[in-house]
Amino acid sequence: MKLKEKLGYREGILGIAANLVLFALKYWAGTVSGSLALLADAWHTLSDSASSVIVVGSVRLSSRKADERHPFGHGRYQQIASLFIAFFLGIVAYEFMTDAVVKFSRHEPTRFGTLAILVTVVSIVVKEGMAQYAYRTYRKTGLETLRADGWHHRSDALSSVVVLAGILLGNRFWWTDPVLGFLISLMLFYAVYEIVRNTVSHLLGEKPGKEMITRINEIISQVSDREICPHHFHLHTYGDHRELTFHIMLQGDLDIATGHAIATEIEKVLKEKLDIEATIHVEPNPDI
After folding, report:
1. Are 161 and 176 in contact (CB under 8 A)?
2. Which of 8, 86, 110, 284 is the most exposed place for a label (fewest CB within 10 A)?
3. pTM, whole model, 2 decimals?
4. Pick the CATH number of 210-285 from 3.30.70.1350, 2.40.128.50, 3.40.190.10, 1.10.10.10
5. Where are the domains of the chain?
6. Are 193 and 247 spatial neighbours (Cβ–Cβ below 8 Å)?
């Protein structure tokens, strides 16, 4: 098993374990204090386990090698899993928003005890720690589901912040809890938008960034001193496997074998230096 797969498994399993422990603590505190809000927050925490299960499953599926039916590998299971996590996060955001509207319309204040304060603070610290761990692991591995799972962990931390704000300010301002809940729901909807936008962009295929194109041009200039004019770049991402297609222009009277040799050498060096599988279309340069 590759290091990135081990890190992905570890993040997912730790997420499941942490969510189950926090669910038990919140449910116990909510039952003892009679707090419906804390009980609801407990079930929200339990729902986060679903995203961690998706992380573990997607890492397993995406690590499968390429086969006859899937010659580019199975890396896009990461993007598919990210969409599922975004779906769950969208449900959480919708529930936040509707609960906030109902509570505001009913002028419902928030009342909790000391036990609820302690459990809520622990939840905030643990869940934000899990979010930071997921983001850090994402930066090391590039696994898309870890970034989405990090947002899911943070959504639970934010829900606990709402509960804590209601504890500390609810006695003075009855509207604190619903207003904060509504604002956080907007933040979560934005997170859903970002996850879906980035994931769909990868699935559709995209143009490489300016830095990558600059690096490709530098590599091409090192491979050949001919005027090649690379253009028409398309990048397709399959997890950690990337396919790049682009065109190059060569002198019109070059023979096919020479043009093929130049393109093959460029593809070889791009694989060595950027770990990208390149496919190059050769066309004549009308100006040469």
Report:
1. no
2. 284
3. 0.66
4. 3.30.70.1350
5. 3-204, 210-285
6. no
**How large is the average pLDDT for residues 76-95?**
81
Dihedral in degrees, nearest 10, Cα atoms 185, 187, 188, 194? 150
- DSSP for 196-232? HHHHHHHHH-BPPPHHHHHHHHHHHHHH--S----EE
CATH number for region 3-204: 1.20.1510.10
Contact 188, 93 (CB under 8 A): yes
- Give the pLDDT score at 265: 93
266 burial (CB, 10 Å; 0-12 / 13-18 / 19+) is buried
Q: Please give the angle made by the CA atoms of 74, 277 and 62, to the nearest 5 degrees.
A: 15
Tokens, residue 221? 């200039």
**Average pLDDT of span 173-196:** 79
| Structure-block tokens of residue 146 | 């870890």
For residue 215, what are its two tokens? 């690096």
